[in-house]
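Consider the following assembly input.
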Amino acid sequence: MKTRPQLKTIDRRNDDIGEATRLELYRRQVEIRDCEQRAYELFLQNLVKGTSHLSLGQEAIAAGFAQAMEPGDLSFCTYRGHAHTLARGVPMEQVLGELMQRDNGLMRGKGGSMHLTSVKHGVMGSYAIVGAHLPIACGAAWRAQYKGDRDVSVCFFGDGTTNIGAFHEALNFAAVWKLPVIFVCENNLYMEYTPIGSVTAVEHPAADRAASYGLERIVIDGNDADIVFRTARQAYVRARAGKGPSLIECMTYRHSGHSRADPAKYRPPGELEDWLKRDPVKLYRRRLLDFGMDAAAIERIEQDSKRQLDAATEACKAAPPPPADILTTDVYADGGWAWRN
Amino acid sequence: MAELTYRDAVARGIAQEMARDPDVVFLGEDVAGAGGVFKATVGLLEQFGPKRVRDTPISEQAILGAAMGAAMTGLKPIAEIMFSDFLAVCFDYIANEFPKSRYMSNGQVKCPLVVRTGNGAGSRFGAQHSQSVENWAMMIPGLKVVAPSNPRDVIGLLAAAVRDPDPVIFFEHKSLYGMKGDVPDGEIVDRLGTATIARPGGDATVLALALMVPRALEAAEILAREHGVEVEVIDLRSLVPLDTRAILGSLARTGRLFTVEENPRLCGWGAEIASIAADEAFWDLDGPIVRITTPHIPLPAADNLEDMILPTVPRIVDTIRRGLKA
């Protein structure tokens, strides 16, 4: 592949992000894109069971935030949580294994696609009841504040969440207690199947509510990983400095339907095509080349991702289903399920 | 030994645990500055400071969600939901979040917290501030459910709940807050899942919980004095874990089983216990299992009407007497 000429307008010495970080941002996006696409293919082969909610088109948000985190920072995700889980470094095999409900899955098939959790990676859970995890993220942030821990909790959610009570309770609570928590709205324009604008009193469902909680109104291009990364970095600095929560609305678009059952026929003609022109992964690749970065390094990232993905897929296909003996484990902290003597 | 009210026992129990463990924190509406609407948490703010004893907005989802996030990451929160009826507005946490996170994450996530809540009737507050909803919590796998009937047990069971690694819903009875009882000095710690024999007797087993325990005990006195019937009153103390051994052990001695339940009849806790007894102790039964419950209707506010529908001492006496043909 030919390297594009470096743009004259870009002064790389003053680049606040840097080459190594940009390659990481790209790597995370590519891995998420590949893994989500593979999840869809595996679903078509009837190998991904249950439901699944893909983040195709929304990769830059997961990549940008994960890149801005420090080890120990905590992520709280929704049922559309594969991207954020992968972005924290959870191996593809464990994610796909959980989607395929195999014994090698992240939770050995006990949680499923909507509940990806990897505490050791800081992924404190994916929550399938809309809004539930915003107050939970507040609680984790409260612990950090109480104990003087340095970590910050981030909570990702969709635009539809902004109309549920828990969203408003959590924002007020976090603001009043000045908690080190970052609320990230991934506004992909649709709450499930309904345009968010047709069911929300304001144009920007998250940002236009920020003032109610004394917070800054922040709307960013969620398809640009650099912008996401910069915004995230500022929010982390603010949270670690004890200045309280941030609410960030990232404009984006999902390339697929709400869930695997949804062909997304409600979209006006041309909308998807317009957004595909702003595909975050392609945009970012072009930018790396515009920066004059080594095409070989970019291709290596892409090849590594494919290699990882193929190995993960084969491992999952070969993995057995979970054994019956885990059916009744971990209901209670003693490891079992006994509710009586 | 000191005489303490049930109300003061709540504060003493919380204080005992907060003094022992700096990770124990306490949050809820009006709990700090005001000392609780039932005055059950007076003095805690002064003793432990505003960092550990925190007033919240009227945001039950935020209260329980924050308690969960804190519990998952290393604290041992005690959260207050003022009236147990309000569990309905934050039921997601009770039903979906606290009890399922450990299982769904294949054991990765822990949730050691206590939700204290004012339960039960007797204050003439009507249908949305008087319910007994212990059966709402009992039906959910992953929760533990506790309901003390006296000041000593408030402290001992609260301590056990705080130290328990699982989420515990702790039902305090509003009509018991003024009850006085002897409480030993020093630390009190109970074990969850242990019923106590509140009064021994050989003619019938009477199971009760919370406010129904003193009522069952009063009924037992009348039955003994006026009808020559000696019933054994068992205070269940926790519904989950359930001390089935104590229940069936008593039934094996008496041959008859009565429940006295404040929760409404349908799917009340006694139904589950009746089913266990029928399955596992059928041949110990000398007669039908009888459930004495609140009927399947909302609670009225008027005092005479409320008194008519809760299990009262005369109703308990009559039902047991008729059941035993005494």
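The radius of gyration of chain A is 20 Å. Ask yourself how this observation constrains the way the partners meet.
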